[in-house]
Amino acid sequence: MNKKWLGSFLLLITAIVWGFCFVVQRSGMDYVGAFTYGAARFLLGGLALIPLALARPCEKQKRRKSLLAGLPCGLALFAGTSLQQLGLKTVSAGKAGFLSAMYIVLVPVLGLFIGQKVKARVWISAALGAVGLYLLCTGGADGSVSAGDLLVLGCSLMFAVQIQLINHFSDTDSIVLSISQYLTVAVLSAVVMLFAETPTWTGVVDCLPLILYGGLVSIAIGYTLQTVAQKYTPPAVASVMMCLESVFATLSGWLVLGEMFSVREGIGAVVMLLAALLAQL
Fold this sequence. Notes:
The longest helix is centred in the N-terminal third of the chain and has 28 residues, at 60-87. The model has no long low-confidence stretch (mean pLDDT 82). By secondary structure, this protein is mainly α. The two termini are 22 Å apart. The chain contains 13 helices and no strands.
């Protein structure tokens, strides 16, 4: 299979995994706090990959470089997932999926500052994305933007930074970088958890199936596929494939939680998706 097609296919699988994880993340906070859930699932995701890393040959210098590269990637991922998890307390899974997908526009815009070429249609798509975002975020009865909307929008910026960082470190070992990235998020989440939350073993046990999906499927599989696929896929193209998570987030919110969009929110979501696609045509 052509490597570019392979990269796109892996990113499509990633989008499906992430999209359905919005429901899991939202449900997980019925049992534990946002940072407790984050610490547990990223720790599980990182530990699950260690046997794979040990079984694969890797030069000592490259392994060290990969471990160090995982630190800034993990910091950006921690900020993004934390903002997303906090926003999901008040934002529906489908709406959060679309807001998170704003990185589709932010990735090429960030690329402009580091020498990547940005075409005129990107600026057109950014304007369309802003219109769609306004419609989506002001779809409530009072027509206001909620704090949860702003949190999830903030997470999309951090995800854009993480995507660019993964691209920057594409010459490292994907598995080792992934482990370093996940364990960085787990440690930072655990530190905040100790100060901001009061986790209980009962809550963790009750949330275990959701933690297992979040750690093994969304983290160990989803984010690792992203890291591998970006070796063959430019960041702008990668972001358009991953933004399809918003479609699967909406689908999962409807199928599992019975969430529905208002007409205004639906129009906003469609406009955002069109803006995302236009940016990468």
